[in-house]
Amino acid sequence: MIVSRAPVRFSLGGGGTDLPSYSQEHGGFLVAAAVDKYIFVNANRRFYDSIRLAYSKTETVDSVDHIEHRIFREALKLADITRGIELVSVADVPANSGLGSSSSFTVALVNALHAFKQEFVSSEQLAQEACKIEIDLLKEPIGKQDQYIAAYGGITAFTFNTDGTVEVERLPIKPEVVHELESNLLIFYSGVERAASAVLTEQGKTISANKDGAVERMHRIKALGYETRKILIEGDIDTYGELLHEHWTNKRKLAVNMTDSVIDDHYETARKAGAIGGKLMGAGGGGFFMFYTRPAERRAVYTAMVRRGLKPLRFRFDTDGARIVANFHRSR
Q1: What whole-number distance in Å separates Cα of residue 247 and Cα of residue 93?
Q2: How much is the mean pLDDT over the chain?
Q3: Distance between CA 189 and CA 98 in Å, rounded?
Q4: What CATH code would you report for 175-312?
Q5: What topology is assigned to 2-172+318-327 in CATH?
Q6: Using an 8 Å Cβ cutoff, are 193 and 287 in contact?
Q7: Which residue, 117, 120, 116, 143, is CA-closest to 130?
Q8: Is the pLDDT of residue 254 over 80?
Q9: Per DSSP, what are the bridge partners of residue 2?
Q10: Could you say which of 49, 98, 135, 283 has the lowest number of CB atoms within 10 Å?
Q11: Which residues are bridge partners to 312 per DSSP?
């Protein structure tokens, strides 16, 4: 038995600039943080030659080509594992919630398959192979942020170059600043699950056509990513809350399905209760809210959101990234 895990993430600043519609032309930059909510993949040698998969449903097949789950199928093909394996996926957070769980699952799966073959691979290789599966093979309209932060962990800055390469920088943030940021961020689940692909596809078209000044908005979002990096290193994190508000103001105009009246009402209620700024995680349209509050207003914002039916999520930042947490696998 092998137990592999990879963290989900919060995008702290510059989110969306990793999308190919923007980064391939202008280059992207963002700051992301891995958190202690994980996607787990358990791998075990199966007595039979068939393949058994367990996730929200169960599949037992005799051939990789017959696998319905697209990521399982392509990952097994890439690893050249064709029989005699059982894979089980378990998650701390729901799918389609804006925390990059699909890419975290892919990274955890790739790591589990390498461990199954008794191979050690770097964080960079895990991220690259996860990107290959999701972007190159499955043609998902996504960027590379989620795969890279799941692989590397920490509070990390990523530069997405126009040639497709990615530069990784673990930010040198003081421990007391990390603790203060954890305390001042409030996370709530909206209760709405949505597939990111629809929002991201429209956002990509908007950027490519530069509709309503979309490229200029993306330039500003990237600048906010650089400002986020500076603020976190210097420790002036109340300013970060103001950046969150500006980020959301720019981002929500990039796709009509990124928000709706209910989401807007949640956001305005939090602001009236004392949140300096906030945003929906990921592509938008649902999932998790992130709000920044000072300690004096924290309880008021918390109470206001719970009264509206939103579910709070406690968290700490993760520094490990993807890892094999247990390995009892033995070769035959």
Answers
A1: 24
A2: 91
A3: 10
A4: 3.30.70.890
A5: Ribosomal Protein S5; domain 2 (3.30.230)
A6: yes
A7: 143
A8: no
A9: 43, 327
A10: 49
A11: 188
Q: What size, in residues, is the chain?
A: 332
- Specify which residues 4 forms β-bridges with: 41, 324
- Residue 316: other Cβ atoms inside 10 A: 11
Backbone angles phi, psi at 264, to 5 degrees: -60, -40
> With bands split at pLDDT 50, 70 and 90, how would you rate the model's confidence at 242?
confident
- CB-based contacts of 150, cutoff 8 Å, min separation 6: 6, 7, 8, 9, 34, 100, 103, 104, 106, 107, 108, 127, 130, 321, 322
Domain spans, the chain: 2-172+318-327, 175-312
Q: How far is CA 302 from CA 58, 160, 187, 201, in A?
A: 38, 35, 9, 33
Q: Which of 251, 12, 24 is nearest to 149 (CA)?
A: 12
| pTM (predicted TM-score) | 0.92
Query: What is the spatial distance between Cα 237 and Cα 240, in angstroms, rounded to a whole number?
Result: 5
Strands (DSSP E) found in the chain: 2-13, 28-45, 51-54, 58-61, 85-91, 155-160, 166-170, 185-189, 277-280, 288-292, 311-312, 323-327
d(CA 236, CA 141): 35
Average pLDDT of span 206-221: 78
Q: Which of 238, 245, 239 is nearest to 270 (CA)?
A: 245
Tell me which amino acid residue 220 is.
Answer: R
Half-sphere exposure of 202 (CA within 13 A, CB side): 16
pLDDT at 44 over 90: yes
Residues 132/139, Cβ–Cβ less than 8 Å? no
